[in-house]
Amino acid sequence: MSQHPLTPDQVVGIIQDAKQAHHAVVAASTTAAISAFMALAVPMVRPPMWQGATLFCAASALWHSQVLRGANQRYILADARKRALEGASQESLIYRVVEGVSPIQDPVQIAPQLSADPVAAAIQRKWEALKLYAQPLEPIRGFTFTRYQFVPNSELSADRFLKTGNDIKQVLGLKDEPLIGVEGGAIAVDVPNPQRTFCNFREYVGFESRSFADPLEVAVGLTLTGQLINLNLSDPDSPHILGGGKTGSGKSELVRAMLLSALYRFSPDALKVAVIDFKGVDFKDFAGSPHLGFPIANNAESVLDILRKLVQQMKDRYQAFQGIASNILEYNGMVDNPLPRWIVLIDEYAQMIAAVRGEYGEDGVKELDSLLNQIGRLARAAGIHLWIFTQKPLMRKPATPCGIDSTLKENLAARIALKVGDHHASQVIMDDSGAEKLLGKGDLLFNGQRLQSLYVSDSGVIKAAIARYATHVSHPPISPNLTSGQPPHHSNADRQGTLRDSHPPVPDFVNDMKPAQAGDFNDDFDGCDELSDRELEHLMKDYARRDPSEIPIPILRQAVAYYDVRLGITGQNRFIEMFWGIPKSGNSPRYDRARAAYKQAVSEE
Question: Is the whole-model pTM more than 0.85?
Answer without folding.
Answer: no
